[in-house]
Every structure is written in structure tokens, then in C-alpha cells.
Amino acid sequence: MDPVPWRDAWHEALYAVTLGFYVTRGGPATHFTTATHGPTGATLARALLELWAAEHGTAAPSVVVDVGAGRGELATHLARAVADVSGEEVGGAGAVTGTRVVAVDVVDRPEGLDERVEWLRSPGGSGLPAALAGLRDALVIAHEWLDVVPCTVAQVDASGTAREVLVDPRTGAESLGGGLTEADRRWADAHWPTTTPGDRIEVGRARDEAWSDLVSRVASGTLLAVDYGHTATGRPSGGTLAAYADGRLTVPVPDGSCDVTAHVAMDTLDADRVLTQREALQALGLTGATPPHALASTDPLAYVAALERASTEARLLDRHGFGGFWWAVKRVREHDVT
To answer: Is residue 173 part of a domain?
Structure first.
């Protein structure tokens, strides 16, 4: 088999109907834990509604959308959190009252998913379903979506020229192809300039375009991208292309056996602000502080609950873990849309 551009092999490895890792090998939770799973997911969902309230002054939006929803873990937490803060029943499919919660991913609706969560199947990668459009009063979350939108991988050759990296889909063996397309070259020159031989570049143009497409589907509301990432002052010279399977880091081979991912250039997205998750959650009031020990004597149940909450918050704030993720926040006002 001839080598192909990493971007093409990557897309097939994750999203092809008969091969794709996300289609054929179970949900992400089968292979790794994200902040959307378990107690951290519940705390994160509440924090996301706090973000909405801070920006819009209302307890809950008309619709919450979870893009790259896995098997609906965060969407389920969001449905519960919306019901808690609004005091209203969350609208399910066909509902005309209450906040709608919509999950978007590349598989059919998972069995056993909370009936309050609507489900839209997407094409995979940067593709979004046509039905996801005209969203008003919407909170849209793309949690670890952009890092699995395949992008051009390049490497600087001995002459200082960035050339596209090709890969054998069967083995993962790499070779250098031709120069970058004009659009990719312009992106690299603007956002990841390097002429040092051996340096790698993960051209974020595909991620920027996927994010812009998502933004264009929102008539009013707030969008949030949460992901592994970097900014201009910290571009990794060796790149970040990696793979995971069965909970372990493995060699990136685009044969459908593993999740292939690369960090996102967060500062090139169309966003109003870019900050770490730790910074964002602290601004929303999360501290991870241990409750006063005296509470254990006066109200043991409250102490245990507070201790559990503090532990969960601490995990989300950990600068070496979930707290090191990046948030890109974009506000869309009705008059912004033409």
C-alpha cells in the first residue's frame, strides 16, 4: 500500500464505517477517562451552566448541544444539571417546553441513554449533521472534539521547507511528501513558523474551519471548545500526534486499532477568550478546598458530601491533569448573524 497523507489516513482510521475506531471499538469511555465521565462530569456540567448564567443572566439556555458526545456521558450530566438549576423538566425529542439537550456523535443513539437527551448522528471528523443549524439561545460544548478532527501533519526537511508527512496505514511508517498546499502554508507561516530541520507542524486550519462551521450554526448563545492544546508561545517543536487504546498510550498507527489525536492550536480559533480550564473554573467559583474539619462533628453527612465535592473539583482544577486543558469561549449575539 502506498503511503498517504496523515490527515486522510487519520480520518479513515477513526471514522470509516467498517474500520473506524470510534465506530467499531466502543465509546471513548472503553479506552480512556475524560473529565466528562463520572463525578467530574457532573461537576463540569454544573460549571458549564454557571458559565451560561454568568454570560447571559439566566439559569439555563433554550438548548444545550454536546458535540463529540461519546456515548452521551456529558449530555446526561447536563440534562440532570439543567433540571436541577431551572426547576423545569428537560425537553426530550419532540418536546416543546423546557431546555433541549442534544448530543452529537458518529454512532447511532446508544442504548439506555437518558430519554431526555436527543441524539444526532454526525459524519465524523469536521463534519456536522445538517439538522444542527439555526440554534438560538444555545450553549454549545465541543469537549475533546477538535483534537480528533484530522489535520495536515508536516515536517521541516533538511533545506528548511515544511513538507507534508505521509504514512503507511498498515504500519505507521512515515515518509515526507511534497510541500504544503498554499492554504496550509499560509496557516503555518502565520501561526507555527519554523524552518528548523526535523520540526513538526500540526496545521490547525482544519480545526479552525470545523470550529467556524460550528459557530455559523449558532444564531445566538455561547460556544465552548475544551481540549488538549497550546498557544503561540508554546508550540511543541516535535508535534503532539499520539494514540491511545485500552487505556494506554500506544504508537500511532492509522489502522483503526487506536484513537489518533493531536493537540489543538487553541489561539487560532475564532474565540473571544482563551484560557486554561483551571483559570476558567476558578473564575466560576470552584476551589477544590477541603471543608472545615469541624463540620465532620456537627454534620457528618454534609462533611462527606463537601469532601467529595472538593475532591472532584480538585481533579478538574489540577494543572497537570484536567485543569491544564484549554477553553476557547465564543459569544454569538443575534445581531452578529447576517
So the answer is: no
Our CA dihedral for 275, 74, 6, 3, rounded to 10 degrees, sits at: 160
Helix, strand or coil for residue 88? coil
> Is residue 164 in some structural domain?
no
Q: How many domains does the chain have?
A: 1
Residue 284 has a CB neighbour count (10 Å cut-off) of 15
Q: How far is CA 189 from the centre of its chain?
A: 25
Residue 272 sits in a domain whose CATH number is 3.40.50.12710
Give the closest residue to 202 by CA, choosing from 156, 258, 255, 271: 156
Cell of 33: 477517562
Rounded to 5, what percent of the chain is helix, strand, coil? Answer: 35, 25, 40
Within the chain, residue ranges assigned H as helices are: 6-15, 21-24, 38-56, 73-86, 182-191, 205-216, 277-283, 295-298, 300-317
Q: How far is CA 192 from CA 84, 165, 188, 189, in A?
A: 44, 16, 5, 6
Look up the pTM and report it: 0.92
Whole-angstrom CA distances from 338 to 134, 212, 333, 335 are 12, 15, 11, 7
Q: Is the dihedral of CA 298, 302, 303, 304 positive or negative?
A: positive
Grid cell at residue 131? 439538522
Tell me whether residue 160 is in a domain: no
Confirm whether 240 is domain-assigned: yes
The 3-class SS string of 281-315 reads HHHCCCCCCCCCCCHHHHCHHHHHHHHHHHHHHHH
Mean pLDDT, consecutive 10-residue stretches, the chain (338 aa), reads 94 91 70 82 97 95 97 96 78 61 96 96 96 97 97 98 97 97 98 98 98 98 98 97 90 95 98 98 94 82 86 95 97 74
Structural domain range at position 130: 18-149+203-333
Residue 81: which of 35, 115, 49, 118 has the closest Cα?
49
Q: How far is the C-alpha of 287 from the C-alpha of 47, rounded, in Å?
A: 12
What's the rounded Cα separation, in Å, for the pair 309 and 159? 55
